Amino acid sequence: MDLHTDNLLGFLGTFGRQDERNVLTLNVLLLGDRQSGRSSVGNALIGGDGFQTGICISGDAVTTKHRLLCRNFQRFFRRQGAESDLTLRVVDTPPMLLPRPHSVHELCPEGVHVLVFVARADLPHDNTRLEEQTLFGPGWRRHALLVVTHADHLEEAGLHPSDYLTQTSDWLRALAEEAGGGVSFVDNSRDWPSIRGRPLRDRLLRLSAENHHRALTVRTEVSL
Ligand SMILES: Nc1nc2c(ncn2[C@@H]2O[C@H](COP(=O)(O)OP(=O)(O)O)[C@@H](O)[C@H]2O)c(=O)[nH]1
Ligand SMILES: [Mg+2]
């Protein structure tokens, strides 16, 4: 597997070919609040530690600008009888309620296949929603996957994930119900990123396949 950072890997097109194998390239956008665990989820997806993570000191965010990391997973799945690589292009974002659409568009001019919403289980959430619809259009839910991090805290508290969802904020519960890719609970304090990421990669690929690998266009003309 090759690890490519930032712009080292040119975009191959949604479907390309490499050494006679098909390559499916998916653009993935991480969204969420400060310290939600976005960068850790990005590392799990990529199977590395390229995104800087950490506790923010004196209110300064660890992730301060959009960052793209790419990784090719060889022979990740079979498509129409042929072995296919999966190339993930994962965009980490600063903690903002609204990502800067121009930055996302610059990194993913062809659009975004999967929106990964990251929220942490051990902190309360308010009901502020992102302007997803304004940014990605009305079909954004079909491309959304919710990842709840810090699942280790739920385990410690003896709380089952489904019980957690009944007790959490309205917006998180609504998102869990609306997201086409459903909800994944992860404990990012355990295992190697690559191992943690495998079920997320599978889920992400399944979701994108359900959307026939169509990408959402990021609307840059809206003033937010
Ligand atoms: N215990 C635990 N810690 C986590 C988990 N996910 C992330 N962290 C830690 O939470 C802090 C913030 O994570 P980070 O990925 O940088 O969050 P970001 O600000 O949203 O990018 C870091 O110190 C991580 O190591 C988790 O699932 N469990
Ligand atoms: Mg971060």
Q: In short, what is this structure?
A:
With 224 residues, this protein is an alpha/beta fold. It is 28% helix and 27% strand. It has one domain (2-210): P-loop containing nucleotide triphosphate hydrolases (Rossmann fold), CATH 3.40.50.
What does this structure look like?
InterPro entries: G_AIG1, GIMA/IAN/Toc, P-loop_NTPase. It holds the Pfam family AIG1. One of its GO terms (molecular function) is GTP binding. The protein has one domain: 3-Layer(aba) Sandwich (Rossmann fold), CATH 3.40.50. The protein has helices at residues 38-46, 101-107, 132-136, 151-157, 161-167, 170-178, 193-210, and strands spanning 2-5, 15-18, 21-32, 67-79, 82-92, 114-120, 144-149, 183-185. Helix 1 packs across helix 7 (193-210). Strand 2 (15-18) and strand 3 form a beta hairpin. The longest helix has 18 residues, at 193-210. It is of the alpha/beta class. It is globular, with a radius of gyration of 17 Å. It starts with a strand and ends in a 14-residue tail after the last helix. Strands 1, 2, 3, 4, 5, 6, 7 and 8 form an 8-stranded mixed sheet that branches. Mean pLDDT is 85; it is low at 1-13. It binds guanosine-5'-diphosphate and magnesium ion. The site of magnesium ion has 5 residues, from helix 1. Residues 32, 34-40, 53-55, 62-63, 95, 149-150, 152, 186-189 line the site of guanosine-5'-diphosphate.
